[in-house]
Each structure stands twice: as C-alpha cells, then as structure tokens.
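[step 3/7] fold_predict: job queued, chain A
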Amino acid sequence: MAAERGARRLLSTSSFWLYCLLLLGRRAPGAAAARSGSTPQSPGASIRTFTPFYFLVEPVDTLSVRGSSVILNCSAYSEPSPKIEWKKDGTFLNLVSDDRRQLLPDGSLFISNVVHSKHNKPDEGYYQCVATVESLGTIISRTAKLIVAGLPRFTSQPEPSSIYAGNNAILNCEVNADLVPFVRWEQNRQPLLLDDRVIKLPSGMLVISNATEGDGGLYRCVVESGGPPKYSDEVELKVLPDPEVTSDLVFLKQPSPLVRVIGQDVVLPCVASGLPTPTIKWMKNEEALDTESSERLVLLAGGSLEISDVTEDDAGTYFCIADNGNETIEAQAELTVQAQPEFLKQPTNIYAHESMDIVFECEVTGKPTPTVKWVKNGDMVIPSDYFKIVKEHNLQVLGLVKSDEGFYQCIAENDVGNAQAGAQLIILEHDVAIPTLPPTSLTSATTDHLAPATTGPLPSAPRDVVASLVSTRFIKLTWRTPASDPHGDNLTYSVFYTKEGIARERVENTSHPGEMQVTIQNLMPATVYIFRVMAQNKHGSGESSAPLRVETQPEVQLPGPAPNLRAYAASPTSITVTWETPVSGNGEIQNYKLYYMEKGTDKEQDVDVSSHSYTINGLKKYTEYSFRVVAYNKHGPGVSTPDVAVRTLSDVPSAAPQNLSLEVRNSKSIMIHWQPPAPATQNGQITGYKIRYRKASRKSDVTETLVSGTQLSQLIEGLDRGTEYNFRVAALTINGTGPATDWLSAETFESDLDETRVPEVPSSLHVRPLVTSIVVSWTPPENQNIVVRGYAIGYGIGSPHAQTIKVDYKQRYYTIENLDPSSHYVITLKAFNNVGEGIPLYESAVTRPHTDTSEVDLFVINAPYTPVPDPTPMMPPVGVQASILSHDTIRITWADNSLPKHQKITDSRYYTVRWKTNIPANTKYKNANATTLSYLVTGLKPNTLYEFSVMVTKGRRSSTWSMTAHGTTFELVPTSPPKDVTVVSKEGKPKTIIVNWQPPSEANGKITGYIIYYSTDVNAEIHDWVIEPVVGNRLTHQIQELTLDTPYYFKIQARNSKGMGPMSEAVQFRTPKASGSGGKGSRLPDLGSDYKPPMSGSNSPHGSPTSPLDSNMLLVIIVSVGVITIVVVVIIAVFCTRRTTSHQKKKRAACKSVNGSHKYKGNSKDVKPPDLWIHHERLELKPIDKSPDPNPIMTDTPIPRNSQDITPVDNSMDSNIHQRRNSYRGHESEDSMSTLAGRRGMRPKMMMPFDSQPPQQSVRNTPSTDTMPASSSQTCCTDHQDPEGATSSSYLASSQEEDSGQSLPTAHVRPSHPLKSFAVPAVPPPGPPAYDPALPSTPLLSQQALNHHIHSVKTASIGTLGRSRPPMPVVVPSAPEVQETTRMLEDSESSYEPDELTKEMAHLEGLMKDLNAITTA
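[step 4/7] structure written:
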C-alpha cells in the first residue's frame, strides 16, 4: 500500500510540470488567432481603435483533498500582454512571498500541498483571475470555487442483514458529500468488483440485486482521500435459500428530491424487496418511461433510474412503481434541473463624446434566474444618478466624462455558477466624428451632430439663454441666435447641464436645425442645475454661453399608494374592495376615490369613499372588473394603486337558449338543436342544458333529460308514432337552471319509410354533354315514402348496359368521365333500395367534338373545357337541402361524394355556404364556412325566398358551386307600422273622410288587412278607440258620419297571418265646419247604416239638420203621404187578386218581351229617384239614396249590372249607381257576373226597396243576422200585396238557395255616434253608400272571402210581353222633406195618366204572379 501511495505522489508531481509545458506551448497560437480576427478597421488616423482584450481560459470549480496540489487555469489575450493577478474571496493575493501558491507563466494559479483542517482552511474559497493592461483597463474572470474535502466522517454505516436468494439487498455508507467520489467497498477484506448486478449509488450505498449464495460475506466501505484510508464497520450479509412463500413488498430505498445542472448525470435510487421478487417500473408526470429503447435512460440493478446528460425537459415528478404480482407499491420524487447563466446578448463596444448618454446592453438566461452586476475596470459599478441599471440588466451611463473610459463587464450569477462578458468604451474628442455603430449603444438624445467637421468660422455663443418654464421635474430653456449668425437657420444647439457641485455634465440636443428651445426632463425637485448652450454649424461647435443657474420647484407632498388593496365578489352583482392608509400620507388623508372598470371596456367609473372599504352594487353577473384607489390630501390626488381584478359571482342564466329548432328524424325520434343564451345573459359557465318534453295531449306528464354544456343538440328517441310533442330547453350553471324557451311542437311520423318494394322512377333526368364527359343530373322519385338507398347510372355507346355506376341517395348529379368525343351515348338512371332496382329513366347525348371549346353550363364547370385542370377540382357537394326552421333561420344540409360512404370527415376540408335573396335584384351573396355537412343560416328576413349553394375546399383544390336549393322563411308579425298615413276630407261630404297609407316597410309576410283606430282623445286607452277593419291589401278607406268641426286622431296597424304589427303614430285631422245640404239635383247626403231618424224634430247628432218648417206642417205632410201609400197598396192588392188565374198567360207574355229604354219625364233637378225602379232589361233589389230624414235602415242585395241597365236621370244619378256597383265588385269582370242573365236572353231584373220596413220585420224574416244573401232568388215572379211581403219573400227565397255555402260579406252596423261601442247588427245591412270606385268601404267586423263568389251571383229575371213600357215609380215615402215630397208628387201626377197607371199596375200584378209560380215550382 505504501508503494502505491508513493507512485501516486510521483505521478501527480510529473503531471503538474507537463501541464505547465503544454500551456506555454499553447499560448502563442491562441494569441495569434485572436489577433487575426479581432482588430477592427481604423476609421481614420484620429480615431482610436478598440483593443482586443479577453480571457482565453477561465478558472472552474475544483474539488481537492488535503495535501494534494491544485491548478486554477487562467489565460488572457491582449496586445500588449496583460498583467495577471488573482483574488481570493475578493482580496488580491500576494504571490511574491507565498511559497505554496505560484503564478504560472500563462497566468494560471498553482497551489501545492493544500492545507485544510477543522480550524484552518486557508486554501478553500472563491478565486478570480484579474487581467490588466496599462493605459487600457482591467477585466476580471468568472469566479471559481475551490472545495477541499474534509476528514472522512461516516454519517451512516452498513448494518448486518439477511436476505433470501433472488431478492435485493442494500448496504449503507454515507460520508461527507465531497468525499463520495473516494468511497469504495470491500467483501471479505478484498476490493469488491462492481457489475450490472452489484452497483454503488452516487451516495456511496451498495445495492445487490438478485442475490446469490456467493454474495454472502463480510462487507465494509473504505474512504481514500489522500491520507490514510478510513474504514467503516464490517458487517455480515447472509443469503438464505428461497422459502417459496410470499413476503410483504417494501421499499429498501426510495427516491428523494434531487437538484442537478444541465449536462450532469443523475441517479434516482429505488430498491424494493419482497417475495415474489418485484419488478420496478418508472413513470414521469404520469407517463410511462421506456428504459429499454432510450439511450439516456438506464434501469440499474435493483431498479434505480439513471439519466445521462440531463436537460431542462427532464425536470418533473418521477414515480417508482414496484409490483410483484400480488401487490403494488409506489414512491415519488421531484427532479429539479438548473442551468448556469448564459448570455443571450453581450455588451458591445461603444464610441462616444463627453456629456453624452450611453447604454450597455446585457441579456442573460439561467435557472434560477441570474442576478446581474456591472464591473468597470475590475471595480463594482455602484448605481447612482449617473450610473443606472435599466430594463433589469442594462447599464446606462449619463453625462459621460473622460474618466468613464475603460472596460465594462456584465457579470451574471445564480446558484449554479457565474459568467462574464465585457465591452470597451472609448470617449472621442468633440471634433472627431463617431464611426457608425449599432444605434442601440447611444440614447436618442445624443445621436446628432456626428458628421465630420470641416474648417471654417465657428458660431459665437447663443444669446439670452433663459429658463422660460421651471417645474419640479423639468425645465424649459429658450435662447436667441448667436451674434455671428443672426438668422441661424442652419444652426443646431447642444444644451449642457449638471447639478451644482457635480463635475459630470450631461447634454441634450435640439431636434432639428433652427430650433431654439429644449425641455430638460427627469430632474430632481428643489435642486440647483447649471445650464450652458453651444451652437454648431457645419464647421463644428462654437462658443459656450455663460452658465445659467436655475433651481427646480419643490415637489408638493402628495399621498402614496394605498397598500393592501383587495377585492372580492360579495354576490353576482356586487364586489367589496378594501385597502389601508398610505404609508407616505404626507399629511391627513381627506378621502379616497375608488375607480373601477369592466374588463374589455375603456370607460372607467369612480366613487368617493371616506372609509377603507366600499361595496359596489349593480354590477354585471359573472363579469371581470378592475379596481384601483387614489388617496387625496389637501394638495390633491396621490399615487394610484396598481389595478386589482376580480370577477363577480356566477348566477343562473337570465335568458333562455336561442334558436331552438326541432327536426323529426322518423316515427320514434326527434332531433333538437339550440344555441347557447346570449353571452351577456349566461351569468356564468354553462354547465349543461335541461331538455323537457311532453305529449301535447298530456301536458302534465313531462320528461326531463340533461346534457353537457358543450352539447348543442340531442336526439330524443323512444317516442310514439304520429304523436305531437312539445319541447323546451333551459341552460344550467353551477347556480341552477335559467329560464326555458317557449314550448316548441313537432309531430313524429305516422310511419317510417317503406322498403317492402322498389323505389319508383326518378321524377326527372337531364344530361349535358361535354367533350369527354357527360354531366348527369336528376331529381328523386315523387313518392317520398319509399326508401331510396342510391341511384344506378348505366351508360354506353348505343346501349346503356356497357357500364354501371352506383352513387349515394343524397347525390343529385354525377359527371361520367373518360368518354369518346363525338359519340352517341345512351344513359339510364334507376333508384334502388335493399329490395331491388326501380323503373329506369332513359336519356341519350352526343359528346362534343374535340374542336368545341364553348363554355359549358355555369353550374357544371363555369369555364371553357380544359383537358388537364390544375389542380384537379373537387366534386361539388350534392343533395343540398334547405330546411326552414323559423322566420329567420334555415338549416342547410348536403352530402359529399368525395367522402367515404359513412360521410365522416377525417381531413382538413371545409365547406363554403353562400346565400342570397333576389329582392332587390342586386343583392350580393353572403358566405360562411363550415366543417360539417350542415350549417345553420341565421339572421334572415322573414317571408323571404333565399337560394343556397355549397362548395368544398381542400387545400388548394376547390369544387364548383353545387346546384341551388331554395327556401322561404316563415312569416312573422309585421315589425313596423304602416307608413305615410294621411287623412283628407271627401269633397262635398264634410262628414266623410278618406284615410290613405302605405304598407309597412317590414311587413314580414302577406298583409291580410289593416285596422284603423280613431278617437277624439289622443290619450285614451286603445280599447276605447273606435276601430275600422280593412280586409285585404287596400291602401285607402272611407269613414263616414263623423262629427263636424271636431279633431280626430287616427292610427293604423297592419295584420298578416301571424298577427298584428305595431301601430303607426297618431295623425290628427279636424273635420270641416257645418255646411248646407248635399248639393243640387239628386246628389244626396251620405247616410250611415246606423243612422237613426231624429226624435221630436230635433237635429240628429251627425245627420243634416231637419228642415226649418214647423212641426204642424210636417205632421200634415206625413199624414198625406201615409194616406196615398195606403191607397196605392190597396189598388195593387186588388189587381194582383184578379190576375191570379191568368198566371201562365202572363208568364208566356213576359218571355216575349223586347228590350227598350225610357227616360224620366220632368226636370231632373226636381225629381227624387223613386223607391221602386221597374226597368224592362233588369229587375233587381237595390237601395236608393234617400233624403236625410227617411228611415235609413236598408238591405242591399249586391247584384252586378251593366252600365246600360239603367238610363240615368242625369250624370249625378249615373255616378251614384256606378259607385255602388263598383264598391262591391272591385275589379271583377262584369260579363262574368251576369251569365244567368245572358243565358235567359237578357230578361229584366227586379229591384225593390227595403228601406220602409221596420227593423223587427227584417230581423224576423232574415235567416241570419250575420250574413246576407248575395242576390235575390232565381224566381220569375212572386205574389205580394205589400212591400213587406216582398221583403220577406225575397229574403226567404234567397236564403233557401244560398245554403250551398257561399262566403258572403258579413253585416256591419256603424254606431249612431262615431265613438260609441259596437253593437251586434240587428238588421240585414245596407249596401255601401255611393263611393268613388277607388275608395271602397269595408264592414267593421271581419269579412271572409269578400270577392270569392261574386261571379256566381244569382239574379232574378222576369220576362215581359214584348212591349216596351216605361219604369213605374211606386212612392212609399217615409216623411221626406216637404219640398221634395211636393216635387215628387207633382212630378208623378204630371208624368202618368190614370189609365196608364192602371196598365202598369196590371202588368206588375202579372209579373208578381210569375215570380210566385217560379218560387213554388
């Protein structure tokens, strides 16, 4: 052993001198290499160049043992050669008089016979190499740590143990960490040979795996650290035979947390024992490690894991899992990986002038994050007003002086190590221009005036330098041009300034020539500064101005930030904020201002608070807010705190899910789709949706199902066939369930599609030939109840059986490729299902010749034929279908034949859906992308036809647009009121007004009617207004019998099939003041159907005033007229009785009548139209306008007639008759309404008055008070002794024949006062008064099918005996005005002789008998 130790000492001494020789030989080429590439080109003779000065070798951390020798390497390069010195623990070593420490020729430090004891450790510590070049500067190396291993001490020693053969064993031997490399094991006093089965862990522990009998013996560990070896206790390890019984699985050694540096090796120990023998597996962060195939991961004996060359990615938690088949145990440990400091950006050399500001940049990385310090010429840089650390690592030097020249080093250090990088600063004379360097080296304030100077006159000093503005932190200086250059347009200026008593000066330059002011920023409050200004021209800098002494203002003492600002959510709508009093209050705090702002907005709100907490209410739910606090004292607001962000608590959603839609899949399932509630109403994270559904017939039996918050559709299965179900969906948060949607209904199919027979023939087949292809398109069979699983396309030249292609059932067209040009192909198409193929459809086509390059159809390829397209276009989607879901939503679905049969998308293709409406015609397409085979188009207009098409894109390949699908959105109630509502008075009728309007701009469907509301009180409740319904899409309406000189207000709302829209704004109209009677001649005043005769001679509320005759005269007239009426009725009765037996003779005579015409005698202005017109072309029931006073209760039978039917008395009468006719007929053809009259040779019709009947009689004899007959019955003649009889028989006959169900106008009764409530009509209503044809009036109540059956109106025709006779008036007055009655009587007497009257009465009797006979038959 002594000989071995002597050999080791000899080897170490010889190796030291050999190392010295190698270093001496290596220095020359290293220096030469440095010289060859480091010296920059000199910009000019007057510019000093940067001198290469750096370390070739730096010392590294070293482990030594007591009594051995150590070399700490160091070598620096420079011209001239640098002087090398060493520091230990920051103090220079005196190596001249030291006999143990020597400086080697290359600069390395040699320490011989290292001294180390418990109380004397002169050699252990931190060493640093310092290189200096006179007149240039100093640089220092990284710091190296010398560790001297202490005396061996065992912290744990091996213990005797017994193990079973095949199991694992460990023997502890823990010593000082620095002595572990010197530990070895002996077995039976002989060195133990290590192998794959027996290993020594880095801690010194011995692991024996799969023990054998030979492993038994005496073991001890030995520590050899230069001195005499240190032995542990010697223990015995016994190996017992395998007992073949199980034992518990336990860890002998578990992994422990480790820290390693990148590049080192690490061993994670893990040894387990038990029977059966366990196997060890490792996991990292819950991922299994593959130790068999990895080069860096090795499973050592016993199960320990070794990782070579550790990287940062190896950090994490490692799990050791032991398993012996019976049980499994697990242990874990954390591996932390650290990294030494590295430079991402090193400082660069800098040229500068005095007074300039510079920045040395230094960017480092490492783990843990390194700290950075700066060294100038070997001395630490202490931050001050002029030396500042900026941006964490950079060094800023302000106001350079000559002494700032030298070498600056950035030193980065962390727990793992340290590193250094340096740069040189050279300060040039002011007349020497700075060479071009990276601009980051200079600050923006000092980069001007660097052009080389030329010879010439220099400017004099600027004049009148003054401080025009002095604040606490800045001063603004102004001056005038130098006397030598009074214009000064080309002069620039530099302002030099320094603190009083400080020699270091800083400079600020003007931004452009001619500018004579500068603002100096970042000054200290209440501090004296000295300023001077120099001007520069192209020749250089001129004289300096006299120094100007300025003191900044003292700073107002404002509060500092409030500490411990905290915010927490108190509820979904409130947040509580707390804080403490500022440390630097600078006086009494008067109050606080709390600022808060919703995240994502830029509107900040504030509230004044006097205490240290405040709760803000009324916030949005589940919304993030930021808060800050500013304290106020008597001087004003202080420094704001940093923002604190907090989110209000969540709550149940405040709105229902959107766009709920139902899709019936089959007879037993319905698919539900929906969208989440609007983001502002979710009030939290949507955790799920609750679907409730029920049968429409059993509303109490509700089923619920829950789905996840990410699911936006659900298939409900197991439903009953042909049953209507209601569905609704509600969103859930962790707080509960929000409001549900409205119930939406859908009905399952009665039966599923039939597949017991083959499909029917496709409904169409179209072919479009190209040069070498034919595009085939088709539509499915009309019978959609039979399953279609696909289509078979057969084609060939002359025969369709040459080739067959089968495509999916969703496909609607296919392109047959690789055909011959100019060839005749026959094509067949058949639908098929599992039963078989259906009936074929045949088509033929001739492909085009090669020379044909005309464009093909747009939907096919949209371009001239190209034999080799690049890239090959994709097949367009097929089977595009539009399913209307609501008034603004349509679901588009399609199929893609380039996908597999299951239609699963596995690549990156996407689909583009486009849609537009043709109204207006220039509407542009809208587009949207989808990655599935459907898309929900929302935001559409109601009741609008849209067309849709789809294309597919995959990479650079796109298809053409598919065939279009069309869909019309559902109607919606009108969302805007009618427009341009105007009210005008009707000319000549002051009580009648005409309301005009335009349809609403947003009708959202076909307008089926309007409702006009009017009232004299604009503020009245809407149910107190009078309403006038208007059926159809008419845009004008008349309202009659309004009160004169009264303001009315009108509103209109539109109606479609979905309901009523909003009302228009109220329009005011004042009726004209009272006027005279209805005009001259026969133009009579308008009377409403609800008009009641005046009582006791008083004026009607809205009729014309009664004649001013006194009551006695009026009574005489009424009695006279009554007597005349009775006489006429008696005469008619007598004649009718006598003529009863001559019924057939009169009927035959009537059939031979010829048509004729006759004009009334007498003055047309004086003649009152008679109540009964008997014309020999037509005889019909028609009300005649009466004077204002007669009873206005009339019944109208709207029978169409030609304008030639009646010879008018004058133009006024003719106008009235035409207006009445057109008000019922609208725009229907007159010819189509008189077919019966045409078939019967234009036999006359009868028109009878019903205005003299009492209301009770009419009601009693009318079949329904809601409907009225469309015409008189189809009879020839009827017995009646009085007008009442005529009324009754006409209504009864009419009602019997109208039972076929004609849809007739319903009755309406206008109240006697314009604002009274409605009453159920008690009488058959009159026809509308005489209006202009363009201004129809409709009943007040809803009407059905106003014009449906007018063309089939029945007419009563009566023949005459071939003789022409004039019309005969039968006067049955109801108290007309005296003047008019007198005129009528005079006219009657003067127009007809007694014998002529007798003939007419006899003829009338015959007509009535004919009519009666027809009715009876």
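[step 5/7] annotate
The CA atoms of residues 468 and 476 lie 6 Å apart.
The first strand starts at residue 53 and ends at 57.
exit 0
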